[in-house]
Write a structure and sequence with these properties.
197 residues; alpha+beta; Pnp Oxidase, Chain A; eight-stranded antiparallel sheet; 35% strand; elongated
């Protein structure tokens, strides 16, 4: 595949690559490694799922009181990378991060599997716990307490939007002369420049 630098929207390319990976049966094609940092610049990274792409960037959801949530409060900048080994492709995205509206978080939470919604209530993500068995017992107890009733989104759980200011598309090529184009946002437009591998 030949990457271009003629003003295409790299986020649309990212959507197309995720769709292609999904069509080929790649497991979790929307999985991305999310890098955050403390206010002092100490980094951490973990894999999360991209749950939407629009003209501004990417959405993901988590516990606001988790390590990543606390880091994003202190330092609202992040970077992600998608990697599809089967397609020999990679996409990096960088930008500022802010919480999505409560309505967007509510809508996404409502479509999650019931067990996952209960877990959002009982798991103090990133915090020490006495045991996994105790956490599972709390899950079972809350399931019984709710007894089929609706599960509302807890206030400590919701979504973030990573507003993309830079996107790098990478495609493997023979002899390690890989194609790489980095796009940077200039107002409403994207400007791309080819980079040496």
């Amino acid at each position: 595949m030949d990457l271009h630098t003629g003003g295409e929207d790299p986020l649309r390319v990212l959507e197309a690559w995720i769709a292609e990976a999904r069509g080929l049966g790649v497991k979790d094609p929307d999985a991305m490694a999310l890098a955050t940092a403390t206010a002092a610049g100490v980094p951490s990274v973990r894999v999360v799922l991209c749950r939407g792409i629009d003209e501004d960037g990417l959405r993901f959801f988590t516990n606001y009181e988790s390590r990543k949530g606390k880091e994003l409060e202190a330092n609202p900048h992040a970077a992600v990378v998608f990697h599809w080994r089967e397609l020999e492709r990679q996409v990096r995205v960088e930008g500022g991060v802010s919480r999505v509206s409560p309505e967007v978080s509510d809508a996404y939470f409502a479509q999650r599997p019931r067990g996952n919604r209960i877990a959002a209530h009982v798991s103090p993500q990133s915090q020490p716990i006495e045991s996994l068995d105790a956490l599972r017992e709390r899950h079972v107890a809350l399931e019984a307490e709710l007894d089929g009733r609706d599960i509302e989104r807890p206030g400590h759980w919701g979504g973030y939007a990573l507003r993309a200011i830079a996107v790098e598309l990478w495609q493997a090529s023979p002899f390690r002369l890989h194609e790489c184009v980095r796009y940077e946002r200039r107002g409403a437009a994207w400007v791309g420049a080819r980079r040496a591998p």
